[in-house]
Structure formats: C-alpha cells, structure tokens
C-alpha cells in the first residue's frame, strides 16, 4: 500500500490547497479511498458563524456518500495539515468515521514535514457510540 499511501497523501495535500479558511488560515486536506480505487477529496470550509464550519474528513466522506458510495466501502483516508505533529481528526470527525467506515479502516495522519501516524478507525475512537448503541433494552 506504500505507493497507494503516497498517492493518497498527495491527493490530501492537493485538497488542502483548496481549503476555504479566511478566519483561521488553518488549512486541512483529506483524501478518502473507495474500494473501487476512486479517491474523494475534502478540505475544511469555514463560516463566519463558526458552527457551520466543516472539516476536511467530513467533506470527503459526505461527498462520497452524496456521489453514491455506500457506508463501509472505503479502504483508507489520509489527512494532512500544517502542524507540528501529524494532524488527527477532531472528535466529530471520529464519530462520523465510525458511522461511515469499517472499524479496521486505516486513517493515515500526516503533516507537511512528512511525519506520519497510521491508526484504524476503532483505535481513534474506542468505545464509540454506534448504531447498535441505539438498541433499546427489552422490558418483561
């Protein structure tokens, strides 16, 4: 996967360059690999009201779903930012990753210096709230 990993990081960097960040100037890019080989890009998109701001990871995931990709059909996501250490997804993005990706999907986190950390979705959010968490207990 090393050549594929490099391509995914390159795509994430290209997405980062498209970020709309007039307030924070903090650009983040993501590249989501579908099982078909198609790559969906995402970048962070800010809003003056802050709450409507969307992270790069969610932009990539939501674009893929809007394009017809099915939850669980992704094999990896790369995230890159101009940070000291490899950038990590925020808590909201981790929850969305749990919902739309398999627990063993690789999350490649990087920075512009080339530092990398690779974890699975499950490792990023242990004890996650999942659809099975919504199951109601039967009372007799």
Proportion of helical residues:
25-40%
Percent in strands: 15-25%
Determine the number of helices (DSSP H or I, runs of at least 4 residues).
Answer: 4
Chain oligomer state: single chain
In whole angstroms, how far apart are the ends? 51 Å
Helix and strand arrangement:
Elements: H1 2-16, E1 28-34, E2 39-43, H2 56-66, E3 74-81, H3 91-100, E4 106-111, E5 116-120, H4 121-124
Parallel strand pairs: 3-4
Antiparallel strand pairs: 1-2, 1-3, 4-5
Summarize the structure.
The chain is of the alpha+beta class and 140 residues long. The protein is 29% helix and 22% strand. It has one domain: Cytidine Deaminase, domain 2, CATH 3.40.140.10.
Description:
The protein is α+β, with helices and mostly antiparallel strands. It has a single domain, classed as Cytidine Deaminase, domain 2, CATH 3.40.140. Helix content is 29%, strand content 22%. The chain is built from four helices and five strands, in the order αββαβαββα. It has a five-stranded mixed beta sheet. It is globular and about 60 Å long. It starts with a helix and ends in a 16-residue tail after the last helix. The model has no long low-confidence stretch (mean pLDDT 95).
Please tag this protein with its features.
140 residues; alpha+beta; Cytidine Deaminase, domain 2; 5-stranded mixed beta sheet; 4 helices; metal-binding; identical protein binding; zinc; Cyt/Deoxycyt_deaminase
């Amino acid at each position: 996967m090393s050549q594929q990993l490099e391509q995914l990081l390159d795509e994430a960097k290209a997405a980062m360059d498209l970020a709309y960040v007039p307030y924070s100037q903090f650009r983040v890019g993501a590249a989501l690999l579908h099982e078909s080989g198609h790559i969906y890009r995402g970048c962070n998109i800010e809003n003056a009201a802050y709450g409507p701001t969307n992270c790069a990871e969610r932009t990539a995931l939501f674009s893929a779903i809007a394009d017809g990709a099915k939850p669980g059909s992704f094999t990896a996501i790369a995230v890159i930012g101009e940070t000291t250490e490899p950038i990590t997804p925020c808590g909201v993005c981790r929850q969305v990753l749990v919902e739309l990706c398999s627990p063993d999907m690789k999350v490649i986190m990087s920075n512009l210096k080339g530092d990398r950390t690779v974890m699975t979705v499950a490792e990023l959010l242990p004890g996650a709230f999942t659809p099975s968490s919504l199951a109601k207990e039967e009372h007799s």
